[in-house]
Amino acid sequence: MLGLSELGIIAALIVFGVFGSIFWIWAILDCARNESPADNDKIVWILIILLLHWLGALLYTLVRRPERMKE
Question: CA–CA distance from 37 to each of 11, 44, 52 (Å)?
Answer without folding.
Answer: 40, 10, 21
